[in-house]
Specification:
The chain contains five helices and no strands. It is mainly α.
Length: 111
Amino acid sequence: MMKISEKQDRVKYIRALERFVKSAIAILKRDDFKEELFRERINKNLTVLNKVKPVFLDSSYTKALEAFAKSVIAGGDKEVLVKEANQLEKLKNVKTYKKDKHKKDKFDSEF
């Protein structure tokens, strides 16, 4: 029974982190970005994130997600945060995208 509870806590924490980060990225990438609106929304979303119990994360993506959330909370330059957000999205997409290797050889062998 303890394993299920740990898994539930992990999923809740990851979902809360992703929700927090996704909203932060959406605000950062807006054309009409305003620092005070950004801080206001971050503080609002931080209350939701603080309700969830933090757990140990072992995946490289989830660790990067947590690190980005901490840097957003700490505050920083918009350009630096946007760069970190882009790197985070790139890290997330690495799992889903894989280039076909030797595509030409595969085509030749079919005939």
